[in-house]
Amino acid sequence: MPDRLPPLTALRAFDSAARHMSFAKAAEELHVTPAALSFQIKSLEQHLGAPLFLRLNRAVALTEAGKTLAPGASDGFQALTAAWRATKRLQDHTALTVTAGPAMTAKWLAPRLYDFARAHPDIELRLAASLRMVDLERDAVDVAIRFGYGADDGLYSVPVRKEWMTPVMTPELAQKYPTPESLKQAPLIFDDSIAFLSPPCDWPTWFRAVGIDHSPSRGAHFSNADHAVDAAATGAGVALGRRPMIIKDLLEGRLVAPFKVAIETRARFRFVCLPGAETRPQIAAFRDWFLAEIEKTAHISDQFEIIPVEDIPQA
Q: In this protein, which residues make up the domain named HTH lysR-type (predicted)?
């Protein structure tokens, strides 16, 4: 005889009580009375034919049966909640939640959001700046802008232009350090957020690209790329700036890139969403806008000799 599942409300009551180890807290979470919650759990125990909780004086504990059921009940309700949330999102053609790293959000996305909002007034865009690798099936996120070497298996993924970096500084510092050789005496700024890249895209690599044997490590170190670029814009030093983080400052004159040699990594930003979701109107609109905005500044790359790091001799 096939197993017949107990009522969903009883399982929900058990899941909440097992997570809180408290009937009172579970009742509060589910907005029912403690008596009603206790009734649901008793009905579940009757359905099973065995107790799920040990009722102690001022607490409860799971029985062996309860410990067996709890993980599956928790996973089941999480999966059901995620599926329901994703299904509801399919019916919403106005809200769009996008996640990107803090640096990409601050230096590239945020300054351009007015243009997107003006072009798409019917879309309510929400940005979540985070380095956490979200689960697009479980988390309430529609689009992720990711950076790295990832294959994005099982997802719709559009890679954008290759990432390159070059020294940037204020116009005043550019007069003080007019040659690559002079940078050996300059205060250098380090972006530690790209330390994971392999081969490295760092100061020693850039110096080797211009034929200088110099491996600096001392200077101001920042864990976020936008902080490194902002420090350079104040005149604090010379940063090895990444293309999307420096474009706006270059165009507006806060920073200059006097040495027309850039080093390029295979790592890229990618536009990522669930397969099939790319056809939803608000996601398609954001993708098309995102790719078009990148192309608007593509001509900046033509000013540089861009050398792949794989072609640069390693130390």
A: 6-63
